[in-house]
Design brief:
By secondary structure, this protein is of the alpha+beta class. It folds into 2 domains: 5-195, BirA Bifunctional Protein, domain 2 (2-Layer Sandwich); 202-244, Roll (SH3 type barrels), CATH 2.30.30. The protein is built from 6 helices and 12 strands. α1 links the parallel β1 (5-11) and β2 (31-37). The structure holds biotin. Residues 13-15, 37, 40-43, 46, 48, 57-59, 101, 111-113, 129-131 line the site of biotin. Acts both as a biotin--[acetyl-CoA-carboxylase] ligase and a repressor.
Length: 247
């Protein structure tokens, strides 16, 4: 459909801008892109390193009309679209670290920050924010990053066009999202499972309530992680941070 693309040389955060625009009534599919962010946000209160001319910093407004239990599928769907973009546009072996880190060779190359805003009727809109490290050279990353980071450039040495990568990403996002709205999430789910580094691994899960150790046995139809603990109980994990444990 008709889409608003809003490009900014600099923003504090594309998610912040998209939230303001969404609250002003901008439609589903509005895309906010910045060349750099001065206060790029990550999950769990972390910041997202967002230098000019290097990465893709992008947010999209969604207004999904879906049963509440299907909303979480958008998180897996986004991770699949991002991983496919690295694989198919850049020929890099990207994997998904559930719920939504994208890794290449075990290092983080992209992250996703989804924020849902609710009103009396339920979810009013969702802002899906995506940050991808593209042309960064490794020595440019700040040393205090908790997760080891990488970029497309660092994995492959060639600088690439961010516009081309962004177009590839938007096309994949749209295609998986339209599938979801049309009630066919199967293909996306299957792809998400096959790209996931967690399934079959023993891991530690940290949530706001504490931690759990177990084996990841599957991702269910809503994108939740099924974790079997030492006593055999299977937990359905909605969110959290996983660390794959060495065996
Ligand atoms: C994470 O891995 O913790 C999520 C990182 C998300 C970063 C992107 S960059 C574009 C959008 N705007 C933000 O402020 N954050 C997201």
């Amino acid at each position: 459909g008709q889409t608003d693309y809003l490009y900014y040389q600099e923003l504090d955060s594309t998610n912040n801008r998209a939230r303001v625009l969404a609250s002003e009534g901008y439609p589903e599919g509005t895309v906010v892109v910045a060349d750099m962010q001065t206060a790029g946000r990550g999950r769990r209160g972390r910041s997202w390193y967002s230098p000019s001319n290097q990465g893709i910093y992008m947010s999209v407004i969604l207004r999904p009309v879906l049963p509440l239990k299907e909303i979480s599928r958008i998180s897996l769907l986004t991770a699949v679209a991002v991983a496919e973009t690295f694989e198919e546009e850049l020929n890099l072996p990207a994997r998904i670290k559930w719920p939504n880190d994208i890794l290449i060779n075990d290092k983080k190359v992209a992250g996703i920050l989804s924020e849902a805003v609710t009103d009396m009727d339920g979810i009013e809109y969702i802002v899906v924010g995506i940050g991808m490290n593209i042309n960064n050279q490794l020595q440019e990353f700040p040393g205090d990053f908790r997760t080891a980071a990488t970029s497309a450039r660092a994995e492959d040495a060639r600088p690439v066009s961010r516009v081309k990568v962004l177009q590839g990403l938007l096309a994949r996002l749209e295609s998986h999202y339209l599938d979801l709205l049309a009630g066919s999430f199967e293909g996306t789910l299957k792809k998400g499972k096959s790209l996931s580094v967690a399934i079959g691994q023993v891991l530690r899960l940290d949530t706001i309530n504490g931690f759990l150790v177990g084996k990841a046995i599957d991702i269910d139809e809503n994108g939740f992680l099924l974790l079997r603990d030492q006593s055999g109980i299977v937990h359905t994990i909605i969110s959290g941070e996983i660390t794959i444990l060495p065996l």
